[in-house]
Design a protein that fits this description.
276 residues, disordered N terminus, two-stranded antiparallel ribbon, mainly alpha
């Protein structure tokens, strides 16, 4: 059902991540569907605020400002990051189909994640319509559980890494590549104090989607050894990882990967991160 209504995951989650399913299928040679018609529908949904849909609230402001302002939606930061990822998928599909004008528009928009990055705080932060940032005093607090803090099912520390389509661009936002590696390593290191993945953790949380791909990000900074370190030494596949409810479609896949490659002497996932 998710693929058939690719705009939205059952009306429950944000963004149009079904776009990535369509793109992935086409790249892999599955073309027995009206791909040009799909592209047209995707583009309309991603650009026309009057098109009925649940997956892109705050679209008018996102198109106009390049980000979703905090006064327009309680999950404004996560929406901006999700839309940037979806715009990349749409733009890449358009590029493959030879639609250069759509590709240029959407690939440019895929850089909108930079518009919610605060250089002074080195975080993805809420931003109002006048451009002022509102960053959390403690990015590790799970304030999303009880207030509209700009994030969906994760805190600022976890959403800080969500740029799966442009990891090299994300690295450049940090003060240096070394700082990126140090911060990412600390993110995992501090998570070891929290053994449960059912309840939200303040650092890396294997119980939900926003930061699942962070384990692979070391590879893009030339430190694949740290990905191996996290897999082999720090990520323990325990029973409580399997006890989350609706996470089976995403979290379980990564947990199985962790378990599989932990038993092997070589970790391959660095070569297959989305968008690289």
């Amino acid at each position: 059902a998710t693929i058939c209504i690719f705009a939205v995951f059952g009306g429950a989650m944000i963004g149009n991540h079904g776009y990535q399913v369509i793109l992935d299928a086409y790249v892999k040679g599955i073309s027995s569907f009206e791909v040009h018609q799909a592209l047209e529908a995707m583009y309309d949904e991603a650009t026309c605020p009057t098109t009925p849909h649940d997956a892109r609230p705050c679209l008018k402001e996102y198109v106009t400002l390049g980000y979703c302002p905090k006064e327009s939606h309680g999950n404004s930061v996560s929406l901006t990051l999700a839309y940037s990822f979806d715009d990349w998928a749409l733009g890449t599909l358009a590029q493959l189909l030879g639609n250069t004008s759509t590709a240029e528009i959407m690939l440019n928009r895929s850089q909108n994640y930079q518009n919610v990055w605060s250089n002074s705080n080195q975080l993805m932060c809420q931003r109002d319509s006048s451009g002022r940032f509102n960053c959390p005093l403690d990015p590790n607090l799970n304030t999303w559980l009880y207030t509209n803090d700009g994030f969906t099912e994760g805190n600022a520390a976890q959403w800080r890494w969500f740029v799966p389509h442009d990891v090299s661009g994300l690295i450049k936002l940090f003060k240096s590549k070394d700082v990126f590696v140090e911060e990412l390593d600390a993110f995992f290191g501090k998570s070891q104090d929290y053994t449960s993945n059912v309840l939200p953790n303040p650092y890396y949380w294997a119980g939900n989607e926003p930061d699942l791909l962070t384990v692979y990000l070391f590879c893009f900074a030339g430190r694949s050894d740290l990905t191996q370190k996290v897999i082999f030494l720090k990520l323990h596949v325990t029973v409580d990882m399997y006890s989350s409810n609706r996470m089976s479609s995403s979290t379980y896949v990564h947990i199985y990967l962790y378990a599989t490659f932990k038993k092997m002497t070589y970790f391959l996932a660095c070569k297959v991160v989305v968008g690289q």
